[in-house]
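Is S-adenosylmethionine placement plausible here? Inputs below.
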Amino acid sequence: MTQGSTIIVNDNFGTLAVALHAFSPYCISDSFISLTSTAENLAQNKLPENGAQLLTSLQQPDGEFDFILIKAPKTVAYLEDTLIRLQARLKPDTQLIVAGMVKNLPASVWQTVELLVGPTAPSRAVKKARLIYAQPDSQRNILANPYPVTYQLENTDYQISNHANVFSHKSLDIGTRFFLQHLPQDNKYRQVVDLGCGNGVVGLMFAANNSGAQLHFIDESYMAVASAQLNFERAFPARKASYTAIDALRDLSPDSVDLVLCNPPFHQQTSIGCHIAMRMFQQAKNVLRSEGELWVIGNRHLGYQASLKKYFPTVELVASNVKFIILKASC
Ligand code: SAM
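Reply from A.M.:
I modeled the complex. Tokens:
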């Protein structure tokens, strides 16, 4: 390996970047939290700032590369998008390696790598993890990127575009659909956050029925925020909104928001659980004004009602069906 000849994609918290810092790799991630953690881990290990060059999933380094190391993402769609974006970075002798737990490397991953790069070879499995080695095939077809993909939002004229790594990118999620049917409408909501906005459909539909509200779209995924911006600006070209890739509400001022709308994540990268939702509820309490509200949708079994009561004096049931529950928590 030589300086600047390596790209790392999807490094969770910068372990690979720290280990390979001597080669000044480019690190590409769709996660604000991953890129921030990578920078913090380089600093904590007293490595130079240029130990790695951090890029979002929507950015690309220039030139061709000797090594491309990809941690297998959660979805084949995002792997497909990544490999298509990297086409111009491949040269005939680039060594591309996809790493993952064996259970996260189904046949569709191998097929996608073979189609978009070239012949593959497996490593031996070690502790249930494996590497896929791929060598670029000079005869391969360079495919056009199908992402973002767009669907028409049911019962509306709105077009909803989705970059590859966006939650429920092919169609409207059933929980989100239920949330859309029960969004509040009132002039009192002025500053409104769509927290964990994904493609922004919740904030967009809220805005459609609340013309005086200013929307703020927040997600830790760069592709989510870019999709939300695309969708909102197309739906409301004259309306101002903000679009921020950040870790939840941590940088918002206290007492600055009237309403937070949230369909919380149940996982962040590979870690699964309600802890992210809990932190979102706690932060929402902090940024909401004294009359502010947090509206949340969740699966019934997640027990959000009890969790919200830890932070909010009043928690009311707005609607429920066999699968989902919508709650309003007031300050
Ligand atoms: N609001 C969209 C909808 O209803 O279709 C997406 C909801 S999806 C269940 C949860 C979203 O939270 C994902 O887009 C995910 O990227 C985002 N997310 C996860 N962790 C986050 C964090 N720490 N800060 C902000 N957003 C986060």
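Short version: The mean pLDDT is 95.
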